[in-house]
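Record type: monomer structure entry
Structure origin: computed from sequence
Chain ID: A
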Amino acid sequence: MTNHSPDAAENKPPALSSTEIDDLLSKTLIANLATIVEDGGIHLLPMWFLRMGNDICIPNSHHTHKYRNLRASPRASVMIDISKAGLNLKGVLIRGQVDLVEGEEARRVNRCIHLKYVTPDALKDPSVASYLSKGDDVTVKVHMDRLISWNLSNSKAGRALGDGGWFHLLDG
């Protein structure tokens, strides 16, 4: 059994408001998709995404490990965050049931996702089109059954680090 300090609630990072969550999920960021491997391990990869209603939609191919993992166990976790220096960290963790969409609907949704990240001219280039338009023949729809958010930049420690400039810049 874990003992929590009396001030654990005080040190808990503030959650994002529903407006902040909506804003974060509308940004052009990278989602980290986690699926369960047959041996119980976790398969974690960076992915493009688009929020559609109560779903996080991710383009995929039926040739991938992700697809096989989700066919066997149709649940996933998705983390989308903005991570900067110090404790300037905020994001959401979404866990939920997965639907694998194929056919014309997958092509339509995946095109919308692609256009969030690249220009229409890019999709006309044969090397890009063969990878994205032809390769992404499945849409992974992760239902937002459970959502956890955090905003460490708005925590007491995060504000102190930011105000004091007491952090090292991240590489990249």
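Annotation 1: The chain has a mean pLDDT of 92.
Annotation 2: The chain has one domain: 14-156.
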